[in-house]
Write a structure and sequence with these properties.
By secondary structure, the chain is of the alpha/beta class. It folds into 2 domains: 183 residues, Rossmann fold (3-Layer(aba) Sandwich); 180 residues, 3-Layer(aba) Sandwich (Rossmann fold). The chain has 16 helices and 12 strands. Helix 9 packs across helix 10, helix 9 packs parallel to helix 15 and helix 11 packs parallel to helix 13. The chain is globular. The termini are far apart. About 2% of the residues have low confidence. Bound molecules: thiamine diphosphate. The site of thiamine diphosphate has 19 residues, from helix 2 and helix 4.
């Protein structure tokens, strides 16, 4: 592996630490996290986010808190894992700065990695960002250039800043907390700063009346998509992501067209779940509307992200391959519930349209107490219900 720059990442982080004030900072895993912790220990940092999730988490935060400055400290390996998130970022203005430390490799996997990342073979990260539509990009190789690029950030204009670094790391000791403590500290920080409540432990135990079933009016006249749309909104879901899939196309369309609702159409379900996690950390109630094959594509994101930190998100999983569907989806259908079970993601199959709204309500209550995702799996036949 050949490093792409001459100056170590720690030197750039020192420059950054001298400049940040109350910025929310989401860091890559391993030494990026520990180096940043040693320079700017703060509850405004979310550390050690997994590969391909740093920029999605930061973008989710930025979308949920558009007047806050958010910084992602990503790596070349991290962003190359799934650069499609840059296209979502380009479509949405925000006070988000994505800094990609490009050392040409997967450095924290070993001191002398033999295998470089694609950036060491000539793939240009700034070209990728621009190809995805990011207008404001820079590549820098020294601290003076880094400072200048930081000064050139324009409010409301997302920026991707590639920093070429040497392969040298600074070994400053481990993080003094696990991911769950980090999640609590970070979210409590946002609660205090924004005067909002993110943690809402079970209302039942505190004497509050359960919310009455919002359900069941006019069901006979409504399609599945309409009831789901109403159920999400009536139960306080205020942020959703989705990748088009036939069973959810009606609800996705309704959410997309609803100008009062924050719906983000994503090119990869895993990145979408990253957005949900970021949005939840900023006080939103997120939902992901994804096909079960998208759930399979997100196993990594859920285990390394939501389940590691303990972050709730309502997952609506389309049940392709369920009985009633075409046989060529059967293998995926057969394992869907087992995959959820293996991930220890609590879930409920919903068969009847009148159970949909109560199921959403109960799932949200469960997640408030248990701080993990919950999946609702409407049967194939239910998703095909016409009014
Ligand atoms: C999905 C996944 N595959 C492999 C790994 C092992 N791994 C840990 S750190 C790392 C390198 C990440 O590269 P980059 O984002 O460029 O950061 P760097 O280590 O170079 O600082 C890898 C591959 C992982 N954490 N996640």
């Amino acid at each position: 592996m050949t490093a792409t720059g001459k100056i170590k990442r720690f030197a750039f982080l020192q420059v950054l630490a001298a400049r940040v004030t109350d910025d929310l900072v989401v860091t890559n895993l391993a030494n990026t996290a520990t180096e940043w912790f040693s320079l700017r220990p703060s509850d405004a940092n979310l550390y050690a986010v997994g590969m391909g999730m740093v920029t999605p988490y930061a973008l989710g935060l930025s979308l949920a808190l558009p007047d806050e400055d958010v910084i992602a400290l990503d790596g070349d390996g991290g962003i190359l894992f799934d650069p499609s998130i840059l296209g979502v970022m380009a479509a949405r203005a925000g006070r988000l700065t994505v800094i990609i430390f490009d050392n040409g490799g997967y450095l924290s996997t070993g001191k002398l990695p033999a295998v470089g990342s694609l950036s060491s073979t000539g793939v240009n990260l700034e070209d990728i960002a621009r190809a995805y539509g990011i207008a404001h990009t820079r590549t820098v190789i020294d601290c003076a250039g880094f400072e200048k690029a930081l000064d050139e950030r324009a409010p409301g204009q997302p920026m991707v800043l590639i920093v070429k670094t040497s392969a040298e790391q600074q070994f400053v000791g481990p993080l003094p907390m696990d991911l769950k403590e980090n999640k609590y500290r970070f979210a409590r920080h946002i609660e205090a700063r924004r005067h909002i409540r993110i943690f809402k432990p079970s209302a039942k135990e505190h004497g509050a009346k359960p919310v009455a079933d919002p359900a069941l009016r006019d069901i006979a006249q409504s399609s599945f998509g309409q009831v789901l749309y109403e159920g999400l909104k009536e139960n306080g879901i205020d942020f959703a992501v989705g990748l088009p899939c036939s069973g959810f196309s009606a609800v996705q369309g309704l959410l997309f067209e609803d100008t009062s609702f924050d719906y983000v159409s994503v090119p990869h379900e895993g990145g979408g779940l990253g957005l949900c996690a970021g949005a939840w950390l900023a006080g939103r109630r997120p939902a992901a509307l994804i096909e079960n094959f998208g759930l399979f594509a997100s196993v990594y994101h859920l285990l390394r992200g939501h389940m590691s930190y303990g972050i709730p998100t309502l997952i609506l999983t389309e049940f392709r391959g369920d009985i009633g569907d075409q046989e060529f989806f059967a293998e995926g259908g057969e394992v869907t519930l087992d995959v959820l079970k293996a991930m220890r993601i609590n879930h409920r199959v919903v068969e009847r349209v009148e159970d949909l709204k109560p199921a959403i309500r109960d799932a949200l209550r469960w997640m408030d107490g248990c701080l993990r995702p919950f999946a609702l799996v409407p049967t194939f036949n239910l998703t095909r219900l016409k009014s």
